[in-house]
């Protein structure tokens, strides 16, 4: 509970076009600390959500998980729920509209200080350097600022967000603090070796 994943940064652009290629090829983007993609309006649509599940969520979770999502239309698509359940072994619960500030751990404990820090980094850049010379420079600055602000988010604040939301996980844990999950039954499994 409360372990940080890499942030996914969505820029306006078209897959396979100039901005998308820039993100893949420019070595100044730190792919170990962040994940970058494009969408026409920099919005979380079905493609972006599936990409987040496949590239950010699923590779980093440890065992069966529960994901609390807000009521964004994309989050509520059946294909998204199915992808989370079948591919990422994740149960999904939806936070009712209007109560995310009370029931969504990220909204409770993380997003305001995170966004405040992003604003500070942007303001500092503009005061010290003036406006951006081009869109690529602005994207690089945004990416670096998101990574810096995210690095400054303390994992303990995320855990506190879960506690304040009343989402306290209970059950047996292993020595690393990860929930103990039963080993899947091997009944019906065929050894292909």
**What is the strand content?**
5-15%
Give the overall shape: globular
- Name the helix and strand elements from N-terminus to C-terminus, one letter apiece: EHEHEHEHHHHH
Residues in helices, as a percent range: 40-55%
The number of helical elements comes to: 8
Q: Radius of gyration from the CA trace?
A: 19 Å
Low-confidence stretches: 188-193
Average pLDDT level: 87
Main pleated-sheet profile: 2 strands, parallel
What distance separates the N and C termini? Answer: 37 Å
The total strand number stands at: 4
Helix vs. strand class:
mainly alpha
Strand order of the largest sheet: 1-2
Protein name: DDE-1 domain-containing protein
Pfam families: DDE_1
GO molecular function, one term: nucleic acid binding
InterPro entries: DDE_SF_endonuclease_dom (IPR004875)
Annotate the secondary structure layout:
Elements: E1 8-12, H1 18-25, E2 35-39, H2 46-60, E3 65-69, H3 78-88, E4 90-94, H4 100-103, H5 105-109, H6 111-129, H7 135-151, H8 155-164
Parallel strand pairs: 1-2, 3-4
Report what the structure shows:
Residues 2-162 form the DDE-1 domain. InterPro entries: DDE_SF_endonuclease_dom. It is a single chain. With 193 residues, the protein is mainly alpha-helical. The protein has helices at residues 18-25, 46-60, 78-88, 100-103, 105-109, 111-129, 135-151, 155-164; strands spanning 8-12, 35-39, 65-69, 90-94. 46% of the residues lie in helices and 10% in strands. The longest helix is centred in the middle third of the chain and has 19 residues, at 111-129. The protein is globular. Residues 188-193 have low confidence and may be disordered.
